[in-house]
Amino acid sequence: MGSGIVKNLLNSGHSVIVWNRSPEKCDDFVKAGAEQGLTPSDVVQMADITFSCVADPQAAKDLIFGNCGVLSETTTSKGYVEMTGIDPETSQDIAEAIVNKGGRYLEAQIQGSKTQAEEGKLVILAAGDRSLFEDCQSCFIAMGVNSFYMGEVGNASKMNLVMQLMNGIILAGLTEGMALADRAGLKQKDLLEIISLTSLNCPMILNKGQAILDGTFPAHLPLTHLQKDLNLALEL
């Protein structure tokens, strides 16, 4: 997901500094014009606004509070945007730490797949510092088709988890339906064609259904990330 975001920021003319726990993953971005920081604190020092997109809440906290982390370089001139799928409590903890250092904080949760990230077609759910939301508009335009400001910190995380819960339920319903059709002696191809002509017609169902038919399962969102989000949704 982060790779597509960085690519579109570079392509839209933004100056970008990158960091990754696996430094070699930054090589292509450096070739494309990005600078590379050696630590998260390097990125914060070099940039006005820092975007974080990592695997889970613990990884997000490690970037903030860990050795050579974000807080060590956070000042009144810095903005921090958390794009990792996290729970509201983690987002509030990060916000408090950033604000106590004088910085501005925005959670900007992502709705979309790896393909949509590559194509700049994400939907961004934001909450927190309104002025930082406005300052990020050129970046959000590069990343996605729309961005929504949802008020106080935690609201965007909650909305993202609601959306992820719905995504999980839809995918579970599709796979159960495909399995039941097969077990009942029906053609799964017929099921998908019928779905395409009804109110159930949507890209997610049709694309995933076709992948099941083809026996190919490209990972637009790793299952471990969806499981993480479903577990967080159950804690709301």
Automatic annotation (TrEMBL):
Q: Which Pfam families match?
A: NAD_binding_11, NAD_binding_2
- One biological-process term from Gene Ontology? transcription elongation-coupled chromatin remodeling
Which GO MF term does the entry hold, naming one? NAD binding
Domain (6-phosphogluconate dehydrogenase NADP-binding): residue spans on this chain:
1-151
Mind naming one GO cellular-component term on file for this protein?
A: chromatin
Chain ranges of the 3-hydroxyisobutyrate dehydrogenase-like NAD-binding domain: 154-235
InterPro entries found in the cross-reference section: 6-PGluconate_DH-like_C_sf, 6PGD_dom2, 6PGDH_NADP-bd, HIBADH-like_NADP-bd, HIBADH-related_NP60_sf, NAD(P)-bd_dom_sf
**What family name appears in the similarity comment?**
Belongs to the HIBADH-related family. NP60 subfamily.
- Record protein name field: Cytokine-like nuclear factor N-PAC
Gene from which this protein is expressed: LOC103523768
